[in-house]
Automatic annotation (TrEMBL):
InterPro entries: GH, Glyco_hydro_1, Glyco_hydro_1_AS. Belongs to the glycosyl hydrolase 1 family. Its EC number is 3.2.1.21. This is beta-glucosidase. It comes from Acanthoscelides obtectus (Bean weevil). The lineage of its organism: Eukaryota, Metazoa, Ecdysozoa, Arthropoda, Hexapoda.
Length: 500
């Protein structure tokens, strides 16, 4: 179709400046510069959100299958990922539309229980292996690089029945699974991510219990989970580094997520920093420096004492474990969606153990901020700018991959101008950061197709392609944003014209 004209029309519909509550960016202008030629653009999905085929070809059950089937009330529309976007059967369509959009890489995840139905090497499912091999070959044929996430929240239920991420045996189970992935797929994969968003795995899954496996053990089980997730990551990193990197020459990291936390007043900066350390720092500090952030060690120890625990609820890392953790990343990653304001508060009363109370600050959002599909999802592009700057000032000059960014809507409309506007403003701030010397090397849009949005079920849409989830054919229908992303990738320019 007449893509060039469409791009021109929708670009001219959008105003060039935006104004936010934040002074530095009050009269923000979209960057007129181009992305560097070597900058990579990709799209992301994950297995449970797109594949479907939940019980086909020997796949074992995972904790999201189990939770959505046994506790459908946990999901806003009581739906599940049994069929989802049906990518298990339609992966060639997915690759074809990615080729059309022109992406350089595709970030997807492997479903542990599709390859190892009970989670262990006792039973290896060849048909599951074939699926990922076919997907990798299809990507290769189309010149799209894979970025493969080994674990994106879908733990085999058989392992959860033994405690899942709260059992220290998970370090060995995960290492076996990761090694198998490197053996099988490594020859075709140059970019690996061990684990996606440990904050969500541990806080949602084992802390407040809104994500699978739905365990509520705030400030206790969730810290055990965090410890074993980090050790599992480090173990897989070293397996790759020693056994596979010499021949496969790839890179590997862990995918971390963070909102931006902006101080309510200058006096709230310390509180905002505590929150950042409890979110990004909780996982970044161990892999970069080998231990929890000091502020976390101190605060959990104090709160545990007030609560009459004999020792801190935060499990420690032995000196040996600290050495294993330190430096287990080839580049930093960030999944980012929204921003919160932070205010300092007096020490919260003791009562129950809780990660939120351990951080001990108040979060809020400005009512004037633009809202996306979900009420917490505020569109605050300058928050991305500040987060990327903070990553450099806090952790130094590392390469950074933006591994997820994007916006959901509830309408699912094809003329998704709000999504275009979100991408354009967020990517513009990222481009500014590149021009400030922050070494951001790639950007991953979430998502290429509509998919299963966890607790939001099919109520929230995030695809550059629409899928009618009640249509058995699950056709992929382009939204305007897919043409806009294609325009950015082709021209490396966020506007219809850039300065050269
Ligand atoms: C805490 O320590 C005290 C004194 O050593 C001991 O009597 C008590 O049983 C311990 N409590 C727990 C929960 O371990
Ligand atoms: C979605 O597909 C169903 C089944 O084919 C159809 O009845 C319905 O009209 C479609 N919805 C839209 C919005 O196209």
């Amino acid at each position: 179709m007449g893509c060039g004209r469409a791009v021109f029309i929708f670009l001219s519909l959008l105003s060039l400046s935006t104004s936010d509550g934040d002074d530095e960016f009050r009269n923000y202008q979209i960057s007129r510069k181009r992305f560097p030629p070597e900058f990579k653009f990709g799209v992301a999905t994950c297995a449970y959100q797109v594949e479907g085929a939940w019980n086909e070809d020997g796949k074992g059950e995972n904790i999201w299958d189990t939770m959505t089937h046994t506790r459908p009330e946990m999901i806003i529309d009581r739906s599940n990922g049994d069929v989802a976007s049906d990518s298990y059967h339609k992966y060639k369509h997915d690759v074809a539309i990615m080729k059309k959009v022109g992406v350089h890489f595709y970030r997807f995840s492997i479903a542990w229980s599709r390859i190892l139905p009970d989670g262990t090497l006792a039973n290896i499912n060849q048909k599951g292996i074939d699926y990922y091999m076919n997907l990798l070959q299809e990507l290769h044929r189309n010149g799209i690089e894979p970025m493969v996430t080994i674990y994106h929240w879908d733990l085999p239920t058989a392992l959860q029945n033994q405690g899942g991420w709260m059992n220290n045996n998970i370090v060995g189970w995960f290492t076996d699974y990761a090694r198998l992935c490197f053996q099988l797929f490594g020859p075709l994969v140059k970019h690996w991510a061990t684990i996606n968003e440990p904050k969500q795995i541990c806080h949602a899954g084992y802390g407040i219990g809104i994500g699978a496996p739905g365990i509520t053990s705030g400030g206790l089980g969730e810290y055990l989970c965090a410890k074993y997730v980090l050790l599992a990551h480090a173990s897989a990193y070293h397996v790759y580094d020693k056994e596979f990197r010499p021949s496969q020459q790839g890179k590997i990291t862990i995918v971390l997520d963070s909102d931006w936390y902006e101080p309510g007043t200058p006096a709230d900066e310390a509180a905002a920093e505590v929150r950042r350390q409890f979110v990004y720092g909780m996982y970044a500090n161990p892999i970069i420096y080998g231990n929890w952030p000091q502020v976390m060690i101190d605060r959990v120890a104090i709160r545990s004492q007030l609560e009459h625990f004999n020792r801190s609820r935060l499990p420690d890392f032995s000196p040996y474990q600290q050495r294993l953790l330190k430096g287990t990343f080839d580049y930093l990653s960030i999944n980012h969606y929204t921003t919160y304001m932070v205010s300092a508060i007096p020490e919260p009363p003791v009562g129950h153990a809780s990660w939120d109370l351990d951080a001990g600050v108040r979060l809020w959002q400005k009512p004037e901020w633009e809202t996306a599909a979900i009420d917490w999802f505020k569109v605050v592009p300058w928050g991305f700018h500040k987060l990327l700057r903070w990553m450099r000032t806090t952790y130094g000059d590392h390469e950074i991959y933006v591994t997820e960014n994007g916006v959901s809507d509830r309408t699912g409309e094809l003329d998704d101008f709000d999504r275009i506007s979100y991408y354009r403003r967020y990517m513009s701030h990222m481009l500014d950061c590149i021009n400030e010397g922050i070494r951001i090397i790639g950007y991953t849009a979430w998502s290429i197709i509509d998919n299963y949005e966890w607790n939001m079920g099919y109520v929230a849409h995030s695809g550059m392609y629409y899928i009618n989830m009640t249509d058995p054919a699950r056709r992929r229908i382009p939204r305007k944003s897919s043409y806009y992303y294609n325009h950015i990738i082709k021209t490396r320019c966020l506007l219809s014209q850039c300065d050269d």
